[in-house]
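Quick check before the chapter quiz. The format below is the same one you will see on the exam, so make sure you can read both the input and the output lines.
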Amino acid sequence: MKQADTTSAGMLHRLDRWMYRGGRPNRLARVLNRIGAVQYAHRIAAPRQAVTLEVVGRRTGKAISFPLVLTPYDGQRYLVSMLGEHTNWVRNVRAADGRAVLRSGHREAVRLVEVEPAARAAILQKFLELAPGARAHLPVDRTAPLAEFERIAADYPVFRITPAPA
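Here is the expected output.
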C-alpha cells in the first residue's frame, strides 16, 4: 500500500493537482490566478521571477492576464506552460501570433516565439528549479537527468521572449 505524503510539500502538490484537475483551473485556482496576476504585475510581495502575461483573448478580443514564472536560461528569457498544450494562455498566444505584454512593475511589449520541442528539455529543467508550484504538474522530478525532460518536452510548450517589433 502506498503511504500518503504528509509533508507540507506533499500536501501542497496534492492541492496543486486538485486545483488543476484535468488540466483546467477550478474556481479556486481561477480566483488565485486573478490575485496572482495583479500581485505580479504590480510587484506586490511577488517572487523575483514572477510576471503577469497579458494577451488578447482569441474569442473575446479582450486582454487576459495570467501569472507565470519567467525562466532565464542561457542568456534568454522563457515562459513555460506547466499544464501543457491545452491551456487558454497558450492558445491565445498562438492566435495572437505571439504578441503579448509582460508586466512586472512595468509594461513590456513582447513577441513570444515558440521553442521547438527538441530544444525545450534544459529550459523545462530550469523552470522546475524556479517554480515549485509547477512540480506537481510535470511528470518529472526537478533533479531528474536531462533525458527525462527530453521525453516530455513535446507536451509542454515553451516560448522565448523577444522584443516586440516596432
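If your answer matched, good. The longest strand covers residues 63-73.
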